[in-house]
Structures are given as structure tokens and as C-alpha cells.
Amino acid sequence: MPIQEGDLVLIQTKDKRFLKRITPGFNINYGKRTLKFEQIVGKEYGSVVEDFYLLKPNLESIILYGFKRKTQIIYPKDAFYIAFKLGIDRNSTVLEFGIGSGALTAVLSQLAGKVIAYEVSQEFYRNALKNWETFGLCKNVEATNMDFSEAEVQEEFFDACFVDVREPWLYLEKVHKVLKKSATCGFLLPTTNQVSQLLKACEGLFGGIEVMEILLRRYKPVHERLRPEDIMVAHTGYLVFGMKIV
Predict the structure, then answer these.
(1) What is the CA radius of gyration of the chain?
(2) Domain 64-244 carries which CATH code?
């Protein structure tokens, strides 16, 4: 289907990418080249115009190039693996709290039947809602501007959970109560001392504990001189996963 006014387009030229909504008066100047509105509308996704590639954005590109960030996002390299480890599907109801800018929520939303999310910061909460609204995401997400400790939730209600807060051990007993038996809970923590404290608190509540980090190194896609990028996003956080035991 041809690109229409108001559509999102991922525009790539050489090593630069731009996620743009195509509206009248739109143009991009890069180097000595200019790409204008009238050169895009009516073209098919995948077209090449003046060395600009007009690509259909996927969720990863929307998160990386479109989401407004009030706090560090969970990068796609971690987010998609998290969703895999949680073992969710369209029959799953997932709990998430500490949603930040809403990037992981968007990933969970595409796979789960329903996501129930909590964010204590009003600034972060409003930004996440705006990100989802801008890109038409998270229609199956029920989000609340509240600390999860204050939420009233039915016991053994959730199929999976992910926690991204500074002191997750303070919430463990409540998380344990609201998860179904053997359900997986994941955590993201930036430092090893936080991981150690979490591991100690998980004893007797969660089994099959795993601790890991995911490193992603990209390469320059030039066949004459294939080599790694000069800069990489390395450590973004430690991932901890465990399953509810009783």
C-alpha cells in the first residue's frame, strides 16, 4: 500500500535513520541532499529516493527513534529477550511496575492478552501514555499512576511479572502472592550489589534463579571492510529471572 499523508516512515540514508510522520511541508536535509513530502507520498515502502530508503517501521525502530524518554528505557536487546523469558502468549495477563517511558510495556503488549502496569512517577507515567498514544500502541494495557505496594490485586492472578524499580526486594512478598504458581518474574537492576540483595530476598519465594546481562555488538555493513561499530551499547543492566515456588 502506498505511503499516505500522516503515515510513519523510517528513513535511512547511509548510517543515519529518522522516524518521521509524513505531513505537508515535511523535508529532511542531509548533507547536500533534500527529501521532501511530495517525493514520499504515493511511494511504496521499500522505495529508494535520492539515496534515502523509505522503510516501514517496526516496533524496535519506533522505540529507538520515536519514543520520548524521561528516564532510561529498557533497550530492545533486553526487552525482546525479557518477553521470551516470561513465556507469555495471548492468554497471559502480565504485571509490570516501574514502566518508565513505556518501552518494555509496548513489547509485552504485542505478545500478551493483557498488561496491567504501575508507575509511581507522574512525569514518567504521562510520558509513557503519550508515547503509546502517539504510535497507536498498548491498547490492551491498563496503566495506573501508583506505587504497586498500594495496589489491590487478587492473589494468584498474574501469569508473569516484570519489575524495574530501585529496591525490588521490598515488593517480593506481594509479587509472590499475586503470581500464579511457577509463574516467572523478571527484574532489571543496574548494579551488582542490588542483584546480590535481590538474590538473598528471593530465597524461599522464587526458584530456578538466573542472572545475566545481554551484550550486543553491531558491525558496519560494508562488504569491503566488515568490522565492528566504533561505539556499542554494552552494559544496560543485569537481568534476574525466577519462578514462583510454594
Answers:
(1) 21
(2) 3.40.50.150
What is the domain partition of the chain in residue ranges? 8-57, 64-244
Asked if 224 contacts 203 with a C-beta cutoff of 8 angstroms, the reply is: no
Summarize pLDDT for 55-78 with one digit per residue, the tens: 999 999 999 999 999 888 898 999
Per-residue pLDDT at 165 exceeds 90: yes
What is the tens place of the pLDDT at every residue in 19-53? 999 999 998 888 888 899 999 999 999 999 988 99
Same fold for the pair 8-57 and 64-244: no
Which CATH number describes the domain made up of 8-57?
Answer: 3.10.330.20
Q: Return d(Cα 159, Cα 88) in angstroms, integer.
A: 8
95 and 158 Cβ atoms separated by less than 8 Å: yes
